[in-house]
Structures are given as C-alpha cells and as structure tokens.
Amino acid sequence: MKRSVSYVVGLILISSLGAGPVHAQTSVALDGSRTIGCTATGSTATVVQHVPAPKAGARTDSAAVIQKAIDAASRRSGGVVQLAAGTYMVSRPLVLRSGVALKGAGKSTRVKAGPLFLKNRGPFGGHPLITTNGSTKVTISDLVADQSGDTLNGNTPYRLNEYLIDVRYTDNAVVQRVTTANPFTYSIAVVASTNFCVRNNFTSVSTSGKYNQLDGIHIFDSSVGVVQGNTVDQGSGSDGDDGLVAHSIGEPVHDVAYLNNKVRGGRHGSAMQIAVGAAGAYNLTIKGNRFWGSPNGLITGYYGGRGPVKNVEVRDNVFQDNAGRSVDFFGAISQIVLAGNTACRSGSFNVTAGAGNWIDGQRPSC
C-alpha cells in the first residue's frame, strides 16, 4: 500500500558530484553535504491514560487491558497510553491505533510475549509484539519490547510476515527510546510507510543456532524518514543478520537518512545493506555512522531483480574492524558520493563505474 504525503523537495546542483534531488527534510551546506531532520511528529496527544503494572512476578495477561486503553484513546481522537514500571505479559499482538502514543517509563517497563503468544497472530499472520497496521500519527517510546525468542520457539511458518516492532501502512510514526529483546524476527521494521522517525533505540540479538534473518532496523518499501542515533548490535549471539537495511521489493525506498547510528551487523549479514529487487532505491543519506565488527560494512545486495540505486551520499562514517570491504557498491548504480569516510582496520572502498559517481577524501587508516 502506498500512502501519499505532502512535502517540499529541494534541488542541489553540484556538477562534479552529480547530485540530484534530495530529501524533504534536507538543507544543503556549502560543501555539498546534506543536513537532515525528522519531520514526523507521531502522536501529538496530551491526554494520558495510565495502565498500572501487574504485581511483580504475576503471570497476568495484560494484552486485553492495554488494547482496551489504546482503543479508547483512539476513539477520543488520540491519547497517551502510559505504562508504569513493571512487566506486562501479553498473549497476542498489540495494535496501535491512530493518534495514540504507547509509552513506558523507560527500561523499567517491559512488554513481553507470554507463553501463549504464538497461539495468536497479527493482522498479516505473523507475530508482531506491537504493530501500527494502517494507523496514522502514532508513537512507540520508552519501553523494552521483548519477543521472548529465547524461551518461545518462534520458528513458525509465518515468522517473517510481521516483525517485533512493526510500523506498517502508516503515515507519521515515531519509534524512539525502545529497547528490543530476544527477537525471532526483525527487531524494528518500517513497512510500506511514509514520514517516519526511528531514533535512539537499541536492538540486539543474543540467541545462537536458533534463528536466521534477524535484522536490526529494516526499512521496507518506505519513504521520507530518518533513522538516527540508534545502537544496533546484531552480533552478541551468532544468529544476527544485517544491522541496518534499506529494502525495496514492490516500491522503491527513497528519501531516507541514516544518521549517527552505532551498528554491528551479525555473523550472517553486514553492518548495513541496500537490498533491492526490481524496485530500486534513491535519495539516501548515510552519514556520521559507526559501522563496526561486521562481516562487511555497507553493501548493495540484489534479490530477484537489479533495480537502480542512485543519488546516495555516504559521508563522514567510520568503518572499524569489519572483516570484508568497508563499502561495496555494484550493479545499476549512479550518483553515488563517498566523502570523508574512515576505514580503521577495515576493508577497502569499492564503487563500480556509474554516471555521476564521486569518491573523495577517504581515510584508509585509524
């Protein structure tokens, strides 16, 4: 599903760099670099409904009471569902409605998949812990989202239909200060959505030999967003895959910025992958990140097609202790800019020929 959003597109013309149209959130400095801010507001509601935590050690199913509070807030044209410190066991996915913010008290609030969680499915047949499913102006913040993949057997036939935090068919979403734990799917996914901000979250993988395809933050067929200030560590256990992903299948990923993230990809993946099929990716900014300890740094990958990858700025990143190449771009690529990146005990920078590609000022040492 493709939703529309009104925004202003700026233009930058730098003939030596071959740069084209840039993000709605972008201003351009004199050196040609882009400065990007998040335009998503998420829920702007101020009315708060408190949901008390169950008593410590209780096995009470909190799914019904939390969902009831979410639904009631949405009927009031929005509201804040405030979870207290404590552990909320849920037996089914929570569906966030339009105008609602689901907030905790920080890391002391844990929403956790309970023992019956796999008996229920989300709107698309998977097992998301929290999904937005077509809502608008939503926020998920200040909590731990625990999918219980360490104790549940999440290897169901529908495991990858939906994801731990699943922002889907949504316009204007904010996911911030969320810690994901024990995933058996991607940790945070934005699917077929527009105008989003994923910032200051923490994802990790701790299992070994139990799952595959455990990506950290996965942007899927989505546009106009910022992924900023996150700590992504898919390498604590051996099951981890890519840290950050820009992934196009039916629609291109475009006008997305990845800024100031600290990322370790897992054994099965890279720190970041631009993954495309027939649809491509364009207008991406990858700036100020630290990509470390991964099989590869930043790569392109192709799945069922060779869609174009164009107008991608890779600037001022640090590639540290990656076993393979720091950057490996190949395929139908054009207008790729690499500037001011550092490789510290990490591999080479490789960009195959393409119109408007420009590489300058890479530092091949610490």
From TrEMBL:
Key word Transferase present: no
Entry keywords, A to Z: Signal
InterPro entries registered for this protein in UniProt: PbH1, Pectin_lyas_fold, Pectin_lyase_fold/virulence, RHGA/B-epi-like_pectate_lyase
Keyword presence, Signal: yes
Organism, scientific name: Arthrobacter echini
Protein's recorded name: Rhamnogalacturonase A/B/Epimerase-like pectate lyase domain-containing protein
Superkingdom of the organism of origin: Bacteria
Segments forming domain Rhamnogalacturonase A/B/Epimerase-like pectate lyase: 58-298
Range of residues in the leader sequence: 1-24
